């Protein structure tokens, strides 16, 4: 009798542990997938993580019970395009977005804005959001904090001079910032925005696979990482838009997404003067736009 009890107790223990492990893995996946990927000025990493812990259980329950996470809220996706503008691919992207009546967010590089000002103005004229992606696409690991600040302000100045707008969102080159870098960005009043969906348009050349990876597992709001200089997304974008619309998604800018979920992006503080880049800057060349080892979005 005692032996049977021990076996029963062991079996129940193993089943309980398996259930906890399965729930933990599912929760972790939902937490990573559902947490809105931006840090507002003054928000800490801990408060950002706590927000995810508060939101993930309801999303997980809704997904299990109905197959459609959180049906009480519209499904919205923010398309974002990094690194441009480029003279060939950016016009093709803009034409596709106009044809399908989709608004997106372009994270631009300052020296590209200055080199192709007409494309920057067209992005704004077509109703898209324009955001800061550094002045020369230099990764933080190659910079001091003073140089990172110069990179951010250099792009801000270019966008303001050429388009008349002030970007409110910042995405670091390579997608990664240290805690010191996050503080530098927040001290300048920026909201740091990364992404929840990475289809891999730099290395994925098959449009059908790129479309599949773009929305796999997506059941509620998200921010998609794409690139203005990648041929794959130019070819896949029409199919991608149609596929997500068929699933009930609406395409919005990042700022509109933030407004819809009750977390509006704050305006930049007024600046009396934007200093010129530091003299003798050893990083004046353009950083590599292709994902590198150590990047958050590397393959």
Describe this structure as you would to a colleague.
- There is one protein chain.
- This protein is α/β, with parallel strands linked by helices and 299 residues long.
- It has a domain at 79-260: Glycoside hydrolase/deacetylase (TIM Barrel), CATH 3.20.20.
- Helices cover 47% and strands 10% of the residues.
- It has ten helices and eight strands.
- It has helices spanning 2-34, 45-66, 89-99, 110-115, 117-125, 145-163, 179-187, 207-215, 231-246, 254-260; strands at 38-39, 76-82, 105-108, 129-132, 169-170, 191-193, 222-227, 250-252.
- Strands 2, 3, 4, 7 and 8 form a five-stranded parallel beta sheet that branches.
- Helix 1 crosses helix 2 (45-66), helix 6 (145-163) packs parallel to helix 7 and helix 8 (207-215) packs across helix 9.
- It is globular and about 85 Å long.
- The mean pLDDT is 82.
User: In DSSP terms, counting alpha (H) and pi (I) runs of 4 or more, how many helices?
Assistant: 10
- Number of strand elements: 8
The coarse overall form would be: globular
Strand content: 5-15%
CATH superfamily (homologous) name of the domain at 79-260: Glycoside hydrolase/deacetylase
Radius of gyration: 21 Å
CATH topology of the domain at 79-260: TIM Barrel
- Distance between the ends: 56 Å
Sequence stretches where pLDDT stays below 50 over 5 or more residues: none
Summarize the amount of helix as a percent range: 40-55%
Largest sheet report: 5 strands, parallel
| CATH architecture designation of the domain at 79-260 | Alpha-Beta Barrel
Mean pLDDT equals: 82
> What is the highest CATH level, the class of the domain at 79-260?
Alpha Beta
Q: Helix/strand-derived class? A: alpha/beta
SSE succession: HEHEHEHHEHEHEHEHEH
């Amino acid at each position: 009798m005692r032996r049977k009890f021990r076996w029963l107790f062991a079996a129940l223990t193993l089943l309980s542990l398996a259930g906890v492990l399965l729930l933990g893995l599912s929760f972790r996946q939902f937490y990573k997938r559902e947490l809105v990927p931006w840090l507002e000025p003054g928000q800490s990493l801990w408060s950002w993580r706590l927000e995810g812990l508060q939101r993930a259980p309801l999303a997980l329950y809704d997904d299990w019970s109905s197959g459609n996470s959180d049906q009480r809220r519209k499904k919205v996706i923010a398309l974002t395009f990094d690194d441009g503008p480029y003279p060939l691919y950016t016009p093709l992207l803009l034409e596709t977005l106009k044809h399908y009546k989709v608004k997106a967010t372009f994270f631009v590089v300052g020296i590209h804005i200055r080199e192709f000002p007409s494309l920057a103005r067209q992005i704004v004229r077509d109703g898209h959001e324009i955001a800061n992606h550094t002045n020369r696409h230099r990764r933080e690991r190659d910079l001091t904090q003073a140089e990172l600040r110069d990179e951010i302000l250099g792009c801000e100045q270019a966008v303001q001079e050429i388009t008349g707008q002030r970007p409110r969102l910042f995405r670091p080159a390579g997608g990664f910032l240290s805690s010191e870098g996050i503080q530098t960005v927040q001290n300048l009043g920026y909201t740091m925005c990364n992404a929840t969906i990475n289809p891999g348009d730099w290395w994925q050349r098959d449009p059908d696979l790129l479309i599949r990876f773009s929305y796999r597992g997506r059941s509620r709001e998200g921010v998609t990482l794409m690139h203005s200089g990648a041929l794959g997304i130019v070819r896949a974008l029409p199919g991608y838009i149609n596929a997500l619309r068929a699933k009930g998604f609406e395409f919005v800018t990042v700022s509109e997404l933030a407004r819809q979920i009750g977390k509006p992006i704050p305006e930049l503080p007024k600046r009396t003067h934007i200093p010129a880049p530091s003299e003798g800057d050893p990083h004046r060349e353009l950083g590599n736009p292709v994902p590198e080892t150590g990047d958050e979005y590397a393959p």
